[in-house]
Amino acid sequence: MATDPDAQIDHEGPVTPYRQLADILKARIARGDWAEGRPIASETRLVQEYGLARSTVRRAIAALAEEQAVWTVQGRGTYVGQPPTEG
């Protein structure tokens, strides 16, 4: 089931807020809001946009990183896709 990229977080629903956010972000990536290798919105922006705690946003980003949908560079941001290979 595809997630609406414009969806709001349902705090009363059966799916945890971090998983809802991860699914929304994946849908936004699929829609082309953020291109491969480009940064997604900052944690601060996602906190403001979705009304979530920073820890919830970080957990959603960590889930996407585990799924290899994004990668993070400390102090620089979170990027779509796989990190570039050295060589």
Structure report:
With 87 residues, this protein is mainly α. Helices cover 41% and strands 9% of the residues. Strands 1-2 form a two-stranded antiparallel sheet. The chain is globular.
Describe how the helices and strands are arranged.
Blueprint: H1 17-31, H2 43-50, H3 54-66, E1 70-73, E2 77-80
Antiparallel strand pairs: 1-2
Helix pairs in contact: 1-3
Q: Brief overview, please?
A:
With 87 residues, this protein is mainly α.
Sheet/helix structural class: mainly alpha
User: Which H/E pattern describes the elements?
Assistant: HHHEE
Mean of residue pLDDT? Answer: 92
- Percent range for β-strand residues: 5-15%
Helix content: 40-55%
Strand order in the sheet with the most strands: 1-2
Major sheet size, sense and barrel closure:
2 strands, antiparallel
Low-confidence stretches: none
Say how many strands there are: 2
Q: In one word, what is the shape?
A: globular
Give me the number of helical elements.
Answer: 3
Termini separation (Å)?
39 Å
Radius of gyration: 13 Å
Features:
mainly alpha, globular, single chain, 87 residues, 2 strands, two-stranded antiparallel sheet, 3 helices
